[in-house]
Structure formats: C-alpha cells, structure tokens
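Sequence only, no structure available. Ideas?
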Amino acid sequence: MANKSTKKSTNKSSNIGPAGKVVIVLFAVLMALSLMLPSLQAIFSSSKSDDSSSAQQSSSSSSDSSQDSSSASDSGTNSNIAKADDKYGEAVKSLEEKYASDSQNLATLLNLGKDYMTWGTYVRYYGTTDADTTHANDLLGKAVKYYDEYLVLKDSNAVRVDKALCAYYQQDGTSALQQMKDLTASAPDYGPAWANLGMLYEASGDNDSAKAAYAKAQQTDPDDEYGAKSYATQRLQSMESAQNSSSSADGSSADGSTSTTGSSQTGAQGLSDTLGNLSGTGL
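Reply:
I predicted one. Tokens follow.
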C-alpha cells in the first residue's frame, strides 16, 4: 500500500506546473513557522510520533506478521491442551487406581471411558499438529478400550453411541457410520442413535440419508426425553438454512453436499451425554 501511495504521489508531483510548485514552497514555509508555536508543535510532535509508529508497523513484512499471528495462536492452543492434560490426567489417574483394584467395576469403567473420550475430543478440537492428532487418537483409543470392557459386562445403547463417536473423532468415519447403523438396527426405538446416524451422514455429505435419520430421531423421541428430537430439529433447520444460503448465492437449487454444516461444532460433536458439557469444562 505504501509503495502505491508513493508512486501515486510521485506521479502527481511530475504533473504540477511552476505555479503549483510556488504554492507548495509557500505552504512549506508556513508549516515551518507554525512549528514555532508551542501548541502546534506539540500536536505535530504527537502526530509525527503516531505516523512513525504506523510507518514502522506498515514496513513489517507480511510473512513476519503471519508468523507472529501463527505463533500466538499455537501458543494459545498448546496452553489449552496442556490445561486439559492436567485436568483430565488427574481425574483418570484416580480412576486408573480404582480400576487396578477392581477391573470389573461398572462405574469405574464408565467414568474412565467418559473422561478419556472427553479429553481426547477436546484435544481433537483444539489440536493443530500431528503430535496433537496422535495424542487425541491415543486418548480416544483408551476410551474405546474401557467402553468395550463395560459392554462385555453390561450392554448399553448410550455407551455404544459414545464408542461409535470415538471412532468418528479418530477420523474413522466408515467404522463410526457402520456402528451407528448397526445400533439403529438393533435398537430402532433409541432416538440418540438415529440423531447421531443423521450427524454422521450429514458430515459425510449424504444429506438425503441425514434428513431421513433426523426424521426418525424426531419420531422415536417425541417427548425429547433424550434430547434427540431437539437435536435433530436443530440440525434439520441448520441444513435448510445452509441450502437456502447456497441457493441465494448461486441462484440455483442447492441439492449437493452441505458437509460444512456437519463440520460445525454443534453438528460434528454429535448427541452424547458424555460430550454434552464439553464446552463447559472450565479449561
């Protein structure tokens, strides 16, 4: 911008005639005299200081600015993950000790699964590096381990939902989708399974299947006992809004993928008691 302004000013100067140059000289003299006045001198000094500061900021290269911004962002992200590691590390340490003394305690297994899942999902959301991804996958893998041990002792639709979501957050959408389809087949009246099946379809871009699954969630949870009806309704409204926006933007019917809707935090998080308070961890 500074180069363009300089060039523009140079071009204008080259077009100024003799009379114009005389005016400029007189103006320069008047400005010099005005500097002798204390009040104007103070104003000018302040202005000069501001201009100098602005010039220094403008002269900084865009690459340095981007690097500083990126560093600040990475620092904040690392801080969030470190806090999560401290918070959940302490929680699971205590539970692991209980598990060591009684590996078949249902409450311990369930809480270990939930804590590792919430921890891993938090790292997945805020992580930015390959190391963060590996960290998240390890945590989610431990959640699955404890969920599997729980399911051997006691079947639970809610635990099966969370186990499938763990696969999704480990970026294994195919496995997650199949697990949720199996659950809707074995428990066709369980609303949360249909709601999460809709989310998985939506995230994959299969909007027709997503809408059908959301409709089933509304039907199987008419009193919103599990929150499936309200969740499905919200997702359907979001999809419709995205479709209308797309139609307005390109002037045609939007019958293609709206996977960006599914990638929003509300959609991608899924319907889960375990993750229901993810944003309220206080980290």
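The chain is about 80% helix and 0% strand.
Hope that gets you unstuck.
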